[in-house]
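Here is the promised in-class demo. Please do not try to memorize the tokens; focus on the logic of going from shape to residues.
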């Protein structure tokens, strides 16, 4: 059997990477749009969690069946936790500062309380349960999807720096839709820029350390700051 020429193999890998991105990147936005805009209620919730399941399953299936690799737990052999911790704290300080400068006048606390009740997190117990889900499950899922899978596919299509930026853009899109449902355009723009910068930083951490766990540590610290702000607005 004749082995494929290097250029042909590279072209095939690029086509596969593009297909993987097309299959995965729209899913979280579709889930958010279905749950918050198109079919709010039970139908939208089912589609939202189906999109989450797709985000979880596709990268693993692709890695095993298409790339024919073996799944690992992404061990942090190169370290990176000290850098990640520092970046997480720095991003959190910026977020808290932005909240102090603009958020207190731009965010309507009563509307946010109503939204929390509508979304089922209007009590302290349910809010804390949502915090636990987002920090210990959703943030891991996002690092697995956007840094491990999407960033790696972007690397096959472009140099490292554009791959960092494109993966961060992919990470930002569905957050924009979610933010628009709850905040005005000023908060949406400011927060979306923050999400993009965070996504770029966490993709860079993956590029440097080749593990999702430093990025996850930084991501989790930032989530704690965001949910702390939410707690103060809703219950404080």
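The designed amino acids, position by position:
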């Amino acid at each position: 059997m004749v082995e494929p020429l290097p250029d042909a193999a590279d072209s095939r890998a690029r086509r596969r990477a593009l297909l993987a991105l097309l299959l995965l990147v729209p899913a979280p936005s579709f889930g958010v749009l279905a749950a918050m805009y198109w079919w709010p209620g039970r139908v939208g919730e089912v589609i939202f969690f189906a999109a989450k399941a797709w985000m979880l399953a596709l990268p693993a299936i692709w890695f095993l069946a298409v790339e024919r690799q073996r799944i690992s737990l992404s061990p942090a052999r190169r370290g990176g936790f000290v850098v990640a911790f520092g970046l997480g704290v720095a991003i959190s300080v910026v977020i808290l500062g932005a909240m102090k400068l603009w958020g207190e006048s731009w965010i309507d606390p009563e509307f946010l309380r109503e939204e929390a009740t509508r979304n089922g997190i209007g009590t302290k117990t349910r809010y804390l349960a949502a915090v636990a889900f987002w920090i210990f499950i959703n943030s891991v899922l996002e690092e697995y999807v956007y840094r491990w899978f999407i960033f790696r596919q972007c690397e096959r299509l472009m140099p490292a720096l554009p791959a960092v930026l494109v993966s961060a853009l992919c990470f930002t899109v569905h957050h924009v839709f979610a933010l628009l449902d709850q905040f005005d355009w000023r908060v949406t723009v400011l927060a979306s820029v923050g999400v993009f910068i965070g996504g770029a930083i966490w993709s860079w951490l993956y590029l440097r350390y080749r593990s999702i766990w430093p990025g996850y540590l930084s991501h989790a610290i930032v989530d704690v700051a965001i949910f702390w702000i939410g707690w103060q607005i809703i219950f404080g």
